Amino acid sequence: MPKITDPDLLNDGPTDNGTTEVFIDTATRRIKLNVFGNLSSSGVQNDNGVNLKALYSFLKEEWRNDPHAKNFAGFDFPMTPITDEAFEFVSGWDIESDAARYLIRDAGWTVKNLAGGTTQMWAGIIGLGFIESNDQLYFQQVTGGAAANVQLTGQINQAVQILRDDDGDGIFAEGSDFDRRGYFKIFAREQGQLYGAAQLADIGVTTLAAQAYRFPLSTGADLKITHTDVQIDANSDNTADVAPYAGMSITYHATPQVRSIGGTNRNFGIIINGNNGTAEQIYEFVQWSLRRATDIDADADSLIGKTADELLRFVGDTLKTRSASNPSGGGSGVFIDNYQTVDINRLTFVDNTGAERKRPFVAALTINFGDNLRLDAAAKFWVYFSTLPGAGNDFRGGRGNHRG
């Protein structure tokens, strides 16, 4: 069944026997949602569950008509609308369980106890963009914290709890209380796909409220990924063990690391050891690492791969590093050591200042000579640039001595 947006598709039952989409329990002031009849949890979240505005409208009809003689008139109405995408459950009313809350779509809400104190806040997280139906998205609510999976695969349309205050006293450091309104980041990282991520800054928000938010999040085929995970990690133990990946590593340094580029020292905080791999192989290793739920930092510090910032991107056939968060403190610049020399002209590095740096251009050529020159042991040849890119660039001709 599709997502319910019409309150006429909801039904309440006289008893809690699971044979209606909704059961309104006046004894506990809880609203239970059952996966039954028109209410489905199958497929992606945009195609199932129930729109919160539709549930609100249904409850209004039930309070007006009271078809099962539950004496609704003797109870405060459960919900207060703020907008079409923001509501409050008031007077001690609440949704019955997390399983039911995860069926709510297109909105956020606040829960208030009988005294009017806020005990819960939930934000409706909606993704905009193409996500394959079997992609497992996940999110982070604390900087450096653990990741949590979205309840279903595919694009997200799910409520996420952002505040818990069991006694409603406004103090969030007690017991199981928490306040997670200040940070949210969602990830899409699947093998063979371009990675996607979105966070509060991407939508111009600094603090989450009990409402719906829409995050730009999409993926697509990554044409630079040509090997499967087992071709990097044969026994699937989260350690690369196939050459050349087995010798590659990523280190997040506590102090800036100096690398000379074109005769000038530049600072970088994150160093990738490419183990003489091609640009594509280095990229594949790094992307594989960034889907690990284990430590990917090669030194004594620890950093979980699946929530670490992306480090590399291809622009055409040019591999570029990115500025990335470095919790060890050595800086956000990313450099690659030990790459194949034939790739030198298609690598670009971002240093700790955020500036892109490239090695001086290296030209390689093969010249075939006739026998007169080839057989002359004292023969010499000269190579010149025929075109200068622009003012301020000085080039020298090359001269070589024939050997053999």
CA-atom Rg in angstroms: 30 Å
Structural class: mainly beta
Number of domains in the coordinates? 3
Record field, number of beta strands: 25
User: Helical stretch count?
Assistant: 4
User: In which range does the helix fraction lie?
Assistant: under 10%
Q: List the helices and strands in order.
A: EEEHEEEHEEEEEEEEEEEEHEEEEEHEE
The geometry reads as elongated
Arithmetic mean of pLDDT: 94
The major beta sheet can be summarized as: 7 strands, mixed
Q: Which stretches of 5+ consecutive residues score pLDDT under 50?
A: none
Distance between the termini: 78 Å
Strand content: 25-35%
Folded structure, characterized:
The chain has 404 residues and is mostly beta strands. It has 3 domains: 7-216, no CATH class; 229-357, no CATH class; 371-401, no CATH class. It is 8% helix and 30% strand. The chain is built from 4 helices and 25 strands. It has helices at 52-65, 98-101, 279-289, 371-374, and strands at 22-25, 30-33, 50-51, 79-83, 86-89, 94-95, 104-105, 108-112, 118-128, 138-140, 147-149, 157-164, 178-179, 185-188, 196-199, 212-216, 249-261, 264-277, 312-315, 318-321, 334-339, 347-350, 356-357, 380-383, 398-401. Strands 4, 5, 8, 9, 12, 13 and 16 form a 7-stranded mixed beta sheet that branches. The radius of gyration is 30 Å and the shape is elongated. The termini are far apart. The model has no long low-confidence stretch (mean pLDDT 94).
